[in-house]
Design brief:
heterodimer, A: 337 residues, alpha/beta, Rossmann fold, 2 domains, five-stranded antiparallel sheet, B: 281 residues, six-stranded mixed sheet, four-stranded antiparallel sheet, 10 strands, binds adenosine-5'-triphosphate, binds adenosine-5'-diphosphate, binds iron/sulfur cluster, binds magnesium ion
Chain lengths: 337, 281
């Protein structure tokens, strides 16, 4: 599909971030294939898919955070607030990291400096980017810790990271990512280490910023409940490619890709305890050659047709901004979910 | 049916010094906890972070010393201070599975060595090719895994291998601490399938998770923990449908569900909103 088609499929607002045909390789190994999407201000988009499908690589490639000695990033166009971003990760506008974009990385343990108090690490953001003095910056840091529901925040700013549990460290990263009210928040499984109550509070905080500041959010998660409750749009990734995209309700209630349907069927639904939990059989493919001359989902697909083993499906644009990469989507659409 | 594993009036506090940032008070991590599980049953445990769920499992298997109360295995009190030989039946019969699937597998050893060692510790030690294959077969894998190391497997495969290692002693009870939280939904469903089968074989589970949907599907009974205490226990479906405690109701309301879009955030905002008195001050 062409870039033109995607742009016309998107909402009328000018996108904050626009990505066309983003690909990532490690040496000769293709890991992410030709990903295209737009993020509009004030919206939340969820990126879902099996572990290893390329979600984190996609996020890091957009932000320009991949190590260039290991990964080669390419594409046809990428813009942020209308300005071109280089795929090499080098050309990023002033203040791109921290001020314009906030990033919550998947593994919180490596992200914090073990030799510096938690409060100082957050305060640094205000000192460096806002020119605040240390005292008021620490005050702001305590306020942020409080917003991410760290109890007794005023006292905990003097703690070092090792004195925080995994879930608390994750909250510190979220506090740092949103401290400067960025235009775009990229959050990679930000709530997996949290209990449900704290998770709900954090999601409400992110949702507030989205409304108040028109912040765009790209959230990576494998919790469809979170997606259903919070996201406007969903992108489903399989073996390095987007296989379906569309409005949250449409994807969760009547997905047109067999993989999307499989994901939904494997959720233990709290509101339908009699519905059996049906696993997708088999394992996800290894990244190399998975889309070479066939559909990568074919070995696990209950809808597969002879054609699926002979060629790889292209992305098709359907109405309402929906996209699907499957020869048999009409059959899937007609089958009850 | 009689319980295969029971704890009676279990109390445990982490010693002062091991505490987070010198509050100076010992955390009472378990406060008079009494629970039991029968063969072929799943006891689910929920509760907010820090409520004592992992501490309970660790205390049962003897990783926390200095507790008071009784742990019973097949009706008999377990003495964690006794010599290992006297606890052999318990050690083999009660196995633990953790959230981090790699954690219970030695990264430097092949799967063959790890599983052979586990089989050798079992009550009927035989670790031939046939036993190894049978073990892998139980978790839906095959002999091709034997000569590989943990780094060569995906998260879901590692969790299967960790379960295979636990099954080597043919345990009657599996203590699972967030066993699927690190896995994506489709792999979680495969592991839940596997647990369902082990349950039908008559094995008992204590299953800790934040995911009430998972417990709704696999647990027979759910216990809710809060600050080291069990605040509510009941049949899984009843407890989810009609929680008796406000704390349980709050956990259910905070679970992200696939209906009533937006209800989760609305509920969180209502909970977070300052009360009129707070707003005035
Ligand atoms: N090694 C330790 N030393 C001191 N205190 C500890 C230790 N381990 C746990 N605690 C404390 O004991 C209490 C119970 O912790 P536990 O790990 O059992 O919680 P949990 O319910 O498993 O939480 P989570 O859902 O976050 O895993 C907490 O207050 C915790 O801070
Ligand atoms: N340097 C690398 N060399 C080879 N494979 C890699 C490298 N980095 C990542 N991968 C592979 O790329 C795939 C996508 O990784 P990732 O984006 O982290 O997945 P996700 O976030 O969806 O779980 C995985 O299969 C991973 O093993
Ligand atoms: S293209 Fe064929 S194999 Fe691929 S998802 Fe569609 S039906 Fe299944
Ligand atoms: Mg990832
Ligand atoms: Mg725990």
């Amino acid at each position: 599909m062409t870039a033109q088609e995607i742009i016309s499929a998107a909402a009328p607002t000018a996108p904050l971030l626009s990505v066309r045909d983003l690909s990532v390789r490690a040496g000769a190994l293709p890991l992410v294939h030709e990903i295209s999407f737009d993020l509009e201000p004030g919206t939340m988009t969820a990126l879902v898919g099996e572990s290893g499908s390329g979600k984190s690589l996609t996020a890091q490639a957009i932000l320009g955070l991949l190590n260039r000695e290991v990964y080669a990033v390419a594409g046809t166009a990428m813009t942020f607030q209308g300005q071109a971003l280089g795929f090499d990760g080098q050309s990023r506008p002033r203040g791109f990291h921290g001020e314009l974009t906030g990033y919550v990385m998947q593994d919180p343990s490596s992200a914090l400096d073990p030799t510096m108090t938690v409060g100082r690490q957050i305060a640094e953001m205000f000192v460096v980017h806002r020119g605040m003095d240390r005292r008021s910056a620490l005050g702001e840091a305590a306020r942020m810790l409080d917003r991410v529901r760290i109890p007794d925040a005023g006292a905990r700013i003097d703690d070092y990271p090792h004195q925080f549990s995994g879930g608390m460290k994750q909250r510190v990263l979220i506090a740092m990512a949103v401290a400067l009210s960025p235009r775009l928040l990229v959050a990679d499984e930000p709530t997996t280490a949290l209990d449900v109550t704290v998770q709900a509070d954090i999601l409400a905080l992110i949702d507030d910023l989205r409304r108040e500041m028109q912040m765009a959010v790209l959230i990576i998660t494998h919790d469809f409940g979170v997606v259903y409750q919070c996201a406007d749009r969903v992108m489903v990734m399989y073996a390095g490619k987007l296989v379906e995209g569309g409005a949250t309700l449409q994807i969760t209630e009547s997905g047109r890709h067999p993989y999307t349907r499989g994901l939904i069927a494997s959720i233990p639904d709290l509101d339908d305890l009699d519905r059996p939990v049906v696993a997708i059989p088999g394992q996800p493919p290894r990244p190399e050659r998975s889309w070479d001359g066939s559909c990568a989902f074919q070995p696990r697909c209950s809808f597969k047709a002879p054609r699926c083993a002979a060629e790889a499906p292209e992305m098709e644009t359907l109405g309402g901004g929906a996209l699907v990469r499957c020869f048999e989507w009409r059959r899937v659409e007609e089958s009850p979910s | 049916m009689t319980a295969v594993l029971a704890v009676e009036h279990l109390n445990f506090g982490y010693p002062i010094g091991g505490l987070i940032s010198g509050t100076g008070v010992a955390v009472k991590a378990l406060d008079d906890v009494s629970l039991s599980v029968e063969p072929g049953r799943v006891l689910g445990i929920v509760g907010e972070s820090g409520s004592g769920k992992s501490t309970l499992l660790r205390t049962i298997v003897g990783l926390n010393r200095g507790y008071t109360g009784t742990i019973r295995y097949r009706g008999e009190a377990v003495d964690h201070a006794a010599r290992p030989a006297r606890r052999a039946a318990f050690v083999a019969g009660v196995q633990m599975i953790f959230q981090d699937p790699g954690g219970s597998l030695n990264p430097f050893k092949t799967i063959r060595r790890t599983l052979s060692a586990a089989l050798a510790r079992s009550p009927s030690p035989r670790a031939g090719a046939e036993e190894l294959e049978a073990l892998l077969h139980q978790v839906g894998m095959n002999a091709s895994a034997l000569d590989r190391r943990p780094s060569e497997f995906s998260g879901g495969q590692l969790q299967r291998l960790a379960i295979a290692r636990a099954l080597a002693c043919d345990p009657s009870v599996l203590l699972c601490d967030e066993p699927t939280s690190a896995l994506d939904v489709s792999i979680q469903a495969q592991i839940l399938d596997l647990f369902g089968r082990l349950k039908r074989e008559g094995r008992a589970f204590i299953f800790v998770t934040h995911n009430l949907g998972v417990l709704g599907h696999i647990a027979d009974t759910i216990a809710v923990m809060h600050r080291g205490r069990v605040v509510e226990v009941g049949p899984a479906r009843e407890l989810i449908a009609t929680p008796q405690q406000a704390y349980t109701a709050a956990l259910i309301a905070a679970s992200p569900r696939l209906k009533h879009r937006g209800a989760l955030l609305e509920h969180a905002r209502r909970r977070l909103a300052p009360t009129p008195a707070e707003a005035a001050s």
